Give the backbone structure.
Amino acid sequence: MLMSELAARTGVPIPTVKFYLREGVLMPGEATSATRARYDETHVQRVALIKALSGLGLSMAQIRAIVTLIDEPGRPLLDTLATATALLPPAVDPGEPAEYPRARAALTALGLAVPDDYPAVAQLEHALAAAEAAGMPMTEDRLRAYGPAVLAIAEYDIAEMPLDSASRAIEYAVLGTALYEPVIAALRRVSHAELSARRLAPRPDGHTG
Amino acid sequence: MLMSELAARTGVPIPTVKFYLREGVLMPGEATSATRARYDETHVQRVALIKALSGLGLSMAQIRAIVTLIDEPGRPLLDTLATATALLPPAVDPGEPAEYPRARAALTALGLAVPDDYPAVAQLEHALAAAEAAGMPMTEDRLRAYGPAVLAIAEYDIAEMPLDSASRAIEYAVLGTALYEPVIAALRRVSHAELSARRLAPRPDGHTG
């Protein structure tokens, strides 16, 4: 397809497609003349990926780092998956102390053996510290309710990860992590709406709750 | 306690405490002289709330709207809970079309009767549309895996909501919604790390997965 069709298919304006090419995040098409090139489905998919990551607030440098890992997944896949997903927001402040007492306690309680240098551990520590500072610390009880539920979600995610090529696995991990966090958050909020309506509904005896 | 102690207790600098007072989000202390006032635990809790909401990127106007609902919960509690949590990010673009086909289908599949004007429905539609645009649409299968897990989390949340006062219920809903979204996201990411390590670990027969 021509660039105009690539633009139409992805809903991304031609100048933006050209910008992606210049930034090196979109691979060049197959040149058919001095000024024309042909694009295919891999370009459609890549533009969709760039658009999605860009919509999540990632910079061109961060997107370039991710697509480089997808295009050249050299190291063991597990390391590359960790590196790629670590590029997703929220950024972990490298100046933060590398001690994660709250995250460590939660991981132990859940039976997870994730090492401290995995960026999501710092993220978890940060999120738990924020809840604690606001007077709503994670309790053992809450962790027992959340832990198995989140694990069930993650089990589905990882079982579905395509392993036929490293590139596809990385793309799946990056998009699946980033795009489904807002879905899960929104599903939780609609569930809250439904369940508080049920809990606050007047009962025959005149009481609520 | 004096303002200096309030500042020390909450880790918020005195000029910021004064700013909160001027902005009307922190209630005044009990005046003990022309220039001094006494603060108590309700002030400590309020400063922690403001700090938490501010850390989530809410503007002073949004924080003021939330604390006004906490201080004067006039309407039926269920409406006030919806209004207060709707003030949390992500903001829903009011110019967006008010049709939610993807969210509606998901809610029906999960047996949730949340009305369309509930802001989390627009949020869910937006998140599902983004996943679809990136080539990773929500499947029935994924929804069947995520739905019960998210409902289990929400059931815990709503069962724990304090109903002894409307103010406490609203504060709990706002903080519990906002502060635990990043916790859940981080727990999912550490679970991914654990489960992909297990899935990619070499098996005795020499295969992975």
Remarks:
- Chain B has nine helices and two strands.
- Chain B has a mean pLDDT of 91.
